[in-house]
Amino acid sequence: MNESIDRLLVLYTGGTIGMQQSAAGLMPASGFETRMREQQAGEPGPLPNWTFQELQPLLDSADMQPRHWLEMARTIREAATQGRCDAVLLLHGTDTLAYSAAALSFLLLDLEVPVLLTGAMLPAGSEGSDAWPNLFGAMRALQAGRVKGVRLFFNGVLLHGARVSKLRSDAFDAFAEAPRKRSAAVVSERPPVLLPQQPAEVVVLPLYPGVGAAQVRALVASGAQALLLECYGSGTGPAGDADFVEALRTAHGQGVVLAAISQCPGGHVDFGVYATGSGLRDAGLISGGGMTREAALGKLFALLCAGLDQHQVEHWFCRDLCGEMAD
């Protein structure tokens, strides 16, 4: 258990939780700190002491980009290392909340300060909104010492930051953890500290009937350093397409990291089950096991940003670093 929180940093990035109506529709709005303090006056304690910081510009999370992950990680790390906080509550829009939670799980892998993300399906102040229950529920989870690492709090449930996905857009229980079928092997090696040194370009390629070499070559030509293939079932794909396989093999030979996850929400990559899986493995793909898209994308991004080479990225991608592969 973590100790009681004395200095909480509330980091506000935008999102539905603090949005207000405009002529064009709901938009992120400043002034949320004042609204929080007014609401807290009627909330039962105990709640931690907190300071408030806005990241500018405030974003609808549909506009969130990998560079914003780096900005959030840098802001959180600076506040923690300077002793300005012993916990962080990050307010974020729901559309890409799971992606940010996963990316921060790896970008802040070495950070001892707990980081909890939350948001809302309806803006604070709207009738029946989940905003204040999510926000103050998250504060209470931190105050009670229930949070370790990067986690997400939503609809009264504490969720693993690198195992969660948004499954619904029309209900308060919008987020769920990926199912866990077995525990991942414990990593005996000390994982690297993933301090960003350079930008990274990771591209997701869902497999579908008709995908081929042209798509692979176009993505590599666009500057992709890693291709995350969302394969069928247990890690299969069109291994009978010689041009597709050769495009993958060529990309790998050029230094592009090739990783595979399953399209199935409860899927797990095991290349050895089918010949169409082992054919992809032999072309250079590595297995993401049962990782979610959000976790695999964030993990590849963090590993590449840290300046690791292809071999090092492949080595660490296949190892469980924070519970992301426990399925």
Automatic annotation (TrEMBL):
The active site is at T16, T94. PROSITE patterns: ASN_GLN_ASE_1, ASN_GLN_ASE_2, ASN_GLN_ASE_3. Residues 7-186 form the L-asparaginase N-terminal domain. It comes from the Bacteria. Pfam families: Asparaginase, Asparaginase_C. CDD domains: L-asparaginase_I. Residues 202-317 form the Asparaginase/glutaminase C-terminal domain. InterPro entries: Asp/glu_Ase-like_sf, Asparaginase/glutaminase-like, Asparaginase/glutaminase_AS1, Asparaginase/glutaminase_AS2, Asparaginase_C, L-asparaginase_C, L-asparaginase_I, L-asparaginase_N. Belongs to the asparaginase 1 family. This is Asparaginase. It comes from Pseudomonas songnenensis.
